[in-house]
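re: ur question from earlier - yeah i can do the single chain one, its not a big deal. heres the input i used so u can compare w yours
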Amino acid sequence: MLGVLLIGSLLTGCASKSEGGKTQTEAEKLWGSERVCLPCHLFQQPIARRHHYRCDTCHRGNPWADNKDEAHYGLVRAPQDPENIGLTCDRCHRRVLGRDVPYNAEFIKDVIVSHKRKEGESLEWQE
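and the output i got, formated as tokens:
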């Protein structure tokens, strides 16, 4: 019986309310069920809100894993770092531009800032 309770608490741990009171359901309403990293990362903001794709597009890892170690295997914590651009930004932007993406510190700064929501800022995706 204790084992069943322990497993149940582990499975619901990420979906429970966190310090801001948001739940997985609210996150899914904001970003849809394909935002598979959000049950454990409820307060992480989407990148630049103009990029309509999952977190693993840039950060890699395994968004469908059942535990943190599996989810973070191969994780790229800082996809904006120059040494990671070939694995991250270039994957899409090379197709669009037909060449490598030049490292642009101002653009990268905007990307990082866009992960942090300002007070009163909408969480809705924008084109």
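The chain is about 35% helix and 0% strand. not sure if urs matches, ping me
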